[in-house]
Amino acid sequence: MFKKYWPLIFVVAAPYLCFFMALDMNGSFIVFGLFLLYLVRLAALAVSGLTALSCVMKERGAREVLAVNMTVKLLQIPAYLLIFVCGVANLLFILTAYVALNMLVTDLFTVAATGLMGTAGVIRAKNEGRIDGFTAIILGVLQFVFVADVVAAIIAFVKAKRG
């Protein structure tokens, strides 16, 4: 099932790439790294948008998209923890505000990218009758809330699998 979702590697890779860029304190990788990070962010949004669109257009089932969305979000948890630690270190040592801002923007991009897929999966599950309307609204909104998105992805997958 996951073979056709290999382009979602861009969504998973974005926060990890941001973390490795933050570790490059001497700046030898910064110009190429920023360019690469911007490309990965755009690719992540494009791939997740296309995945969401294919789900809404009934080319992919709700359980399938929700399972992939949940997997992507769970794979990103270690990166978010590393970014948090690096961000705290930047604040403590007053290295640069730019590094912290770049990490925040990357986090927002990845939450938006996975939120698109999650919301599309929830809409599809509602249309398939697996999730009721009120639950679909709540789970759809929570797909865009940091930390709550992981819990909402798990709940949506479990509800779609049972329904």
Q: How many structural domains?
A: 1
Spatial extent as radius of gyration: 17 Å
What's the N-to-C terminus distance? 20 Å
> What is the tally of helical segments?
6
Compressed to H and E, one letter per element, the order equals HHHHHH
The tally of strands reads 0
Helix content: over 70%
Largest sheet: none
**Low-confidence runs (pLDDT<50, min 5 residues)?**
none
Oligomer state of the chains in this structure = single chain
Strand content of the residues, in percent?
Answer: under 5%
Which structural class matches the secondary elements?
A: mainly alpha
Output mean pLDDT.
85
From the spread of the alpha carbons, the general shape counts as: elongated
Describe this structure in words.
This protein has one domain (2-162). Helix 1 (9-23) packs parallel to helix 3 (62-93), helix 3 runs antiparallel to helix 6 (148-162) and helix 4 (97-127) packs parallel to helix 6. With 163 residues, it is an all-alpha fold. It contains 6 helices and no strands.
Summary, kept brief:
The protein is elongated and about 55 Å long.
Which tags fit this structure?
elongated, 6 helices
How would you summarize the topology of this molecule?
Layout (H helix, E strand, L loop, with lengths): L8 H15 L6 H27 L5 H32 L3 H31 L5 H10 L5 H15 L1
Helix pairs in contact: 1-2, 1-3, 1-4, 2-4, 3-4, 3-6, 4-5, 4-6, 5-6
